[in-house]
Amino acid sequence: MEQIKKGQRLILFPLPFQGHINPMLELANVLYFRGFSITIIHTNFNSLNPSTHPHFTFHSIPDGLSETETSTNNPLLLLSCLNAHCCDPFRNCLANLLSDDGSEEPIACLITDPLFDFTRSVAKSLKLPRMLLRTGGASSTIVYAAFPLLWEKGYLPKQESQLEEPVVELSPLKVKDLPMMNSCDPQGYYQFITEMVNEIKTSDGIIFNTSEDLEEQALTTIRQEFHIPIFPIGPFHKWFPTSYSNSLLSEDESCISWLNTKAPKSVVYVSFGSIAAINEAQFLEIAWGLANTNQPFLWVVRPGLIQGSEWLEKLPQGYLEALNEKGHTVKWAPQKKVLAHPAVGLFWTHNGWNSTLESISEGVPMVCMPNFTDQMVNARYVTDVWRVGLQLENGIERGEIEKTIRKLIAEKEGEEIKDNMSKLKEKTNLSLREGGSSYQSLNGLVNHILSL
Length: 452
What we know:
Elements: E1 9-13, H1 18-32, E2 37-43, E3 57-61, H2 67-70, H3 75-98, E4 107-112, H4 119-125, E5 130-134, H5 138-145, H6 147-152, H7 186-201, E6 206-208, H8 212-226, E7 230-232, H9 254-259, E8 267-271, H10 280-293, E9 297-300, H11 319-323, E10 327-330, H12 335-340, E11 344-349, H13 353-362, E12 366-368, H14 375-385, E13 389-391, H15 398-410, H16 412-430, H17 437-451
Parallel strand pairs: 1-2, 1-4, 2-3, 4-5, 5-6, 6-7, 8-9, 8-11, 9-10, 11-12, 12-13
Helix pairs in contact: 5-8, 10-15, 15-16
């Protein structure tokens, strides 16, 4: 792909959560290899490691978060605190970068996250164009944009008696799939989402980690409703192989050598992301459900995953020994390497957008267990639109787990899902090749940035 002439700098400012950092740094790499110089501004909270990206310039800003704020279980409260505390430090850092007379590289634009609601006024005051990276999918963005309608029609706030009812305006979603946060005040969350959508609509353009081939209908709707330039250029991580990690947690590479001993497509990979938590009863149902399948499994048990537990102490005595090397647990895994490994045949996931896209990119069918926000929308699309996985619709119960995994690994429905996934993988990855939709969209993005 033709590169632009050196001499244009981009400022990227990621939201400091794993699911937002990964795609922002992957986007930074895509744009770096198209000829842009990259400067990353980041908070002290979940601070980034500049040594993993020596080709970027990093600037850290104070976030003013207290220990109580950083340890809260309420993500909305943490986001509110970040937005309240980061505005002035961000403004000062950006102003200094813009006034740096020693730099021969003009700053073309700022790329940030729509959940940072203060960046619009800061960029405007400094006369700097501002584009946004939406780290979730286009389909969930449509749902967020429909919140006023969903509220007016009575779908929100969700009522227990309505959970299985279809949302006719957003087929194939059910009420239970609407992206709420259980720990948040519904009205406060509604306001937060409304502001996020408004940030997108008032930006100089939005970048999506998706492709036309994957989410064509949702992207068409966004273009009709948002009236801003839209650039779906994903999957970001498949543009080029990478040897570094953006993980905030230490990755246990031992699982790769364990996978090397397993038969092709035999392993169930289990990971519920960097935030989700389960209780002890659910943990034990998962443990026995996995064991009862008699399939080898790689299980990421993140410290903090099980409420009231440090790590594996809640497992029944002798559980892992009885599996005789069929089960392998790690605190955190190099997920992209795992999903690309020939031994992995199934991914049991929380359906965060990054995990969903990584699974599709490697052609690995999914068992879906969404937890909150857009994960429910993603899971519904996996099961009912793309038909590349099955959802645990009836809760976490060992018999249901065993039945679902067996269905995907060994039964006719599983064969159809594998076939669908193989075709979707091919379509998604073809979009990055010359003439593909993401390839063309990236060219459009580069030209758009240079025109700002």
